[in-house]
Amino acid sequence: MQENIVIPDSSESCNAVCIIEIDADGAVGTGFLGVFPALLPALLFLVTCHHVIPDEAACASAICTFEADAQPSASILLEPHLGFWTSKVLDVAVIRIASFAAFTLPRLKPHVLDLDGEPAIGEAVWLSCFSRQKLAHFCGRSLGTNGKQLRVEVQDTLPEKGASGGPVTACGQAVAVHVGLFRQTSGVEARASLLSALNDEAHSGTLSGALRPKQPLPSQLTIHGRRGTNDIINGVYQVCEDKECGQNIWVRISPDQYEATMQARPSGLILYKGSRSQAWTVATRLGDGLLRSEGGLGGILARRLKLEDGDDPTEVCVGDVANWHVASGAAGKLQPDPLVRLMPLADADFAKLRTSWRSLAASARTRLANAVQEVEVTGFPGSMSLLNGKLCLLPEPWNWYPAWRSKEAKVGTDHVFLYRDASQTKWVIGLALGNGHERMAHVCLAREAACFILMCLKFPTSPLLSILTRW
To answer: What domain of life (predicted)?
Structure first.
């Protein structure tokens, strides 16, 4: 048999293979990302050999690095308290990957872990592993099974060191974990622990219990990545118990209100699990998770796909159920947005964020004192021309930044306001001061070109006043 060091068709999955370095003794092994679609959907795991990572203590010194052609390498640290299972007999270890770590590996497609399949004798299989610090892929042929191990015909060029823990795949799914080489009278063959050997553990609930132990709910979490319509869903949410419905919900924090009262107060948005939809939902009020068009209570700005079990919205990190759908367009239909991410926010990181909030609050008066007294907005055409005109500086800051109001009412008794949104990501123009959600135009702070974006309308952009680029 000829050795084939080529990338199989499912190259994305093949790149989801990492080199595992153990600092304690310099040991090196291979591991790979995997998912259990039926057993533990939407959770991500690292699979390797027991002799590479024998216990939770070994995870502390393990560094897992993913490398792929034309892509920067990415390393993750293991957190076995989230989930850890190992078997010395099978020589297999499975470690849960935290959601924030999973989101740093967006281009790596995890292997589907096949708990039922066993390659037939003569069937082609692929073995991926690290050889001399480089990821290599080898084509082999199944020689059948020996107990709970798969025998694979290989060439002598397959490395003896560093390959342990690599995935053995057949028909695009991982069926076994490579454990080592064995020299027989007929030649050299590889041995790999069949993942089907985990079936008894899976059916008894032992596997899922070890890989998904009960964890305390995150006190804070963040949603980010939304741009444009309904980007108000971005922000920090804090957990609280809703006594009426008897479930935990997360309310979006308004930074200025939080620093003033030292407690979370709903700013119009709530993250909850719909009682009827069983989907995590961001809405303006607590409901059943269904749109009015679906016979529900409505008020929904964003919703994730249905996932029946679990009370922690942050643990979901892979697959379609990790994708959010956000209301957009005139009809407010839910449209997929793959950029939206929901992740836990550690207490230490929340403390740092609050420090930045306090810094903004402390310097609000300085920014107000340095602001110009009057600005003029020009260039909005047609029906949006009501936004044009002179605006005067307000005596108090809004969202810790200067704000301006038109001298005269433009629509009935409504004035035009120019202010910084609550998320501190953009300047907005609207007919009332607020958090920036209800607006008629905005400009993102990250944009190099200072120009307004007209919401829902495709008019030519107009110059933004230079005052807005000073902070």
So the answer is: Eukaryota
